[in-house]
Amino acid sequence: MSEARTPTRKPGTEGPLTGVRVVELAGIGPGPFAAMLLADLGADVVRVDRPGGPGLGIDPARDVTNRNKRSVVVDLKAPDGPARVLDLAERADVLIEGYRPGVAERLGVGPGDCHARNPALVYGRMTGWGQDGPLARRAGHDIGYIALTGTLGMIGAPDEPPAVPANLLGDYAGGSLYLVVGVLAALHHARASGTGQVVDAAIVDGTAHLSTMIHGMLAAGGWQDRRGANLLDGGCPFYGTYETADGRYMAVGALEPQFYAEFMRLLGVPDPVPARDDTARWPELRAAVAARFKSRTREEWTAVFADSDACTAPVLSLREAPHHPHLAARSTFTYHGGITQPAPAPRFSATPTAVRTGPALPGADAESVARDWDLPREPGPPPASRPDPAVHTPQ
């Protein structure tokens, strides 16, 4: 692996991965998010954009998954394209790609090509189906990956189709986060041994792994293999969501007896009330709880449960969440470049993280990357300029 470099940014403001160099071969979804997380933690992430962009129709200036990164444009199908990427890989600690299996090899930037130039490189591969298996070369998206793992089938009401959890469960939890864990583990190994390796992060593998506890409960007889019939899937009347008088919702998670007692006291369900452990009467208990929640607005119930241990909270929208007093006090969201966005997580006492720059515009950083990474100087397209954060219109 290449030696740790002297940071080019101001010390003490970058995060614990300062000095780590990452090459991201541009893609969509979980790969860019994984690279953003590494960038948030202080890594110098250079995104290799393709001419014309990824084609998602998102304004690059607002694609915050490209924050804290730099960008160069390389046409991998051009005669000099692979060599330019290999020049970066030779100087990097990590490379991340999200192509279908075999594509990087055909383009001349696969693990073999990169390790020939840099044996200590950690080569991270982000796919839905993985690098092998009958479906490895098939197209897919988050919803299909989580469908096969059994996790999608757990979510939603028993008499309705499974509820789609956006693309958070597969792409980002089962994909991006597992890729980052794998890359950091391999980086630790490479620094100790001098030997890099390939990290095969498949969304099906990571999402299945997330359900480990549920599989244990299933084996022990504590989980029914059907939707809406269990303690944590909405089947339990004191772990779920309820509509309020104004058509909004409250979330209840009063699992432990002492929290349940506090919840019921504040909710004010009139006696007689079915025993909480009488699962045969859970429908009656749910109906009684639902009737009480329908009697007041979300704001009124929020006030009732404030400062209590009833484990009950309002269900907020994306635009409402940043204004919640707790999240505002912790600066869980930040405002940068005219965009309200989640702040970097987790937090570090000695090496704090921050949103240092807005989204990297394709090709905007060719000159600075060539200088800082000591790359061969080659002609390229004129760099775009970063927008002035002061002129952005807030979301």
Discrete helix count = 13
Write down the secondary-structure element order: EHEEHEHHEHHEHHEEHHHEHEEH
Helix content: 25-40%
What strand order characterises the main sheet? 3-2-1-4-5-6
Q: What Rg do the Cα atoms give?
A: 24 Å
- What fraction of the residues are assigned to beta strands by DSSP? 5-15%
The backbone outline, from C-alpha atoms, is elongated
**Can you summarize the main beta sheet?**
6 strands, parallel
**What's the count of strands?**
11
Low-confidence stretches: 1-12, 379-395
How would you concisely characterize the structure shown here?
This protein has helices at about 30-40, 80-90, 105, 110-115, 140-150, 170-195, 205-210, 210-220, 255-265, 280-295, 300-305, 325-330, 365-370, and strands at about 20-25, 45-50, 70-75, 95, 120-125, 195-200, 240-245, 250-255, 310-315, 335, 340. The protein is an alpha/beta fold and about 400 residues long. α1 crosses α6 (about 170-195) and α5 (about 140-150) crosses α7 (about 205-210).
